[in-house]
Amino acid sequence: MASKKNHPSVQQFKEFVKEHPKIIQEVRKGNKEWQEVFEDWYLLGENDVIWNQYKEQPAEDNSQNTESKSDFMSSIVSAVKNMDMNTMNQHITNMSSTISTIQGLFDQFGVSKGSKQSNSGTGQSPFSFRKD
To answer: Confidence class of residue 1 from pLDDT cuts 50, 70 and 90?
Structure first.
């Protein structure tokens, strides 16, 4: 395959798009077309104010994101350190006894997973007809 040489302005436009990755997102979303973007770039130049919104944000955002993740993790670790394990154990025991009580109520009132299936499978008719 022979490689096709592009016009120098097309090569410059490709470099420009690489520096402004949000333009690619706009085109993929269908908000703009490549022809429109190229014409704006060709007429206005690459230093125009309208291109500022498409520039990639500096690495500060990534560092802020990393800092917020580390702050979140450090707050969780400090919360775990400050927990009283006896109190946590008591809460877990209370939850367990509450769940056991609820299960007992379900058993007492006949509500269980297989209660509907077992009644229909016993062979008894749900209607009380007498044979003559």
So the answer is: very low
What would the pLDDT profile of 70-79 be if each residue is shown by its tens digit? Answer: 788 888 888 8
| Number of Cβ atoms within 10 Å of the Cβ of 37 | 20
Burial 58-82 (b: 16+ CB within 10 A, else e): eeeeeeeeeeeeeeeeeeeeeeeee
Long-range Cβ contacts of 68-75 (<8 Å, 24+ apart): none
Place of tokens 């125009």: 48
**Torsion from C-alpha of 61, 62, 68, 71, nearest 10 degrees:** -130
How far are the Cα atoms of 63, 96, 120 from residue 112, in angstroms, in the given order? Answer: 53, 19, 14
Cβ–Cβ < 8 Å for 46, 16: yes
pTM: 0.40
Residue 17: which of 32, 31, 34, 4 has the closest Cα? 34
If phi > 0 it is left, if psi is from -120 to 50 it is alpha, else beta; for residue 123 that is left
